[in-house]
Amino acid sequence: MQAFPEVLYCSDATSPLVVFQSLALALLASRDRSVRRWLRNPQAVKSKSAVSLRGIVLDAVRRGTYLVVLDHLHGPAAALSADTRDLMFYGGTPVVAISRSAHMEDLAF
Fold this sequence. Notes:
By secondary structure, the chain is of the alpha/beta class. The chain is 48% helix and 12% strand. It contains 5 helices and 3 strands, in the order βααααβαβ.
């Protein structure tokens, strides 16, 4: 874990909006400079769209060294899968996906 100074945890990965709001709030709490430039407080996170938050979060994780944990995945959801792949490949960020289901298709990969 020393290679990842910050772990970004999303406790309810049910939709892209919920995931990016959760990650943006975690980045804001960790005082990430690129996120603080766009989002001054938690209320600003709630006012942004999923697409806007996606861009802000992807830029922040690309610049930093983060580990993203997505818990309680519900799926399958193509949009959430695409966003997770973008976090991993564009952002170069390791992602741990946790599905609390007996069905592998809930991971949607």
